[in-house]
Amino acid sequence: MEQGFEYSANLTGVSFLLYELKQVIKLERESLNNREIKEKVIKENIFQYKFTSSLKRIAPTIVKRMQVLDKTLKDMVLEAPLETGKAINLYAIMKTDKLFFEFMDEVIKEKLEANDFIIDKKDINVFFTSKAEQESKIAGWTENTYNKLRQVYFKLLFESGILIDKKSGTIRQLLIDENLRDHIRNIGDIAYLKAMGDDEVLL
């Protein structure tokens, strides 16, 4: 599958949201379409949020993440162990956010390949600076946007299990379930396995 989304800073308003992804997959199993899912999430407060505005902002993002998953991956999110669900959720985020995928591919993957298991703010700042030099859209973002994205990136790394110590910035390779690895390989998305630092495909 080709990563075709444009650069955006949409991640500033969302985060890992694995629980929410599970809820929309369950709703799809009830034969609801994407529009109906969004409507039900908002009307019935499926995510149990305090503010309706948060539901309206998050629901489209979660549905979009669900849309890039096939039935096998959706089933795994609901039925496989938590760590597998986290890996699939990270995959879905990369599939729907071009900049974050490139961060994973160009920063995290390269660090793991080099046995460099520390990430800090400088690494992300260098990445943003490089992208801003290549893309005028990114160059036009405010410092506040960069700061928010930096915070979200660290949070995504931590919640996915790649970042294991926030204070030291220690990262690790994800241990990908064999069935998940084989499936992602079979659908032609090995680049995403590599970006997640899967030790089997980095060898």
UniProtKB/TrEMBL annotation:
It comes from the Bacteria. InterPro entries: BrxA, BrxA_sf. This is DUF1819 domain-containing protein.
